Sequence to fold (152 residues):
Amino acid sequence: MYNFQLDEYVDSLNEDYELIMNEYSGTELFSEIIHALNWLFPDWKMNKELGCGAPEFVLSVIHNTEEIFESSCQKEFLKFLYDHITDCYDSSRIFYNDSFKMKCNNILANLTEDEFEREFGMLESKMTKKEICKSFEIFQKKLSNDIAYHFE
Fold:
């Protein structure tokens, strides 16, 4: 099988990720957000969840919680943070998951015949529509457990 990585097709430079890592990494606010996400949604960094949209989501949470972080006690802030993440997560996950599926579709659409044959063991032109759909599902599932970004 052809060893395919989604990150080959995703911009390696994500401005939100770089901003977060340069401006917020190591701060208490950043640590609390990452801790909350890891606790509430352990797979949040995987493509089957937020994936490539994780930096945008984290930056949004930072911007939406920064003021209350600075102006309230820790208990009040944590309650607000956990509620905010819980309220926003599902709609963001659906949006980014749809985006992930489109990226997978675009990757498959742009494979050469040789790449397609290495990945699926057969030329696309020799496959039925049902086999192509099944191949897409397998391909997407394989990439869905990849972690797009690391927030350490």
About this structure: Residues 40 and 49 are 12 Å apart (CA to CA). The radius of gyration is 19 Å. The chain has two domains: 15-96, 111-146.
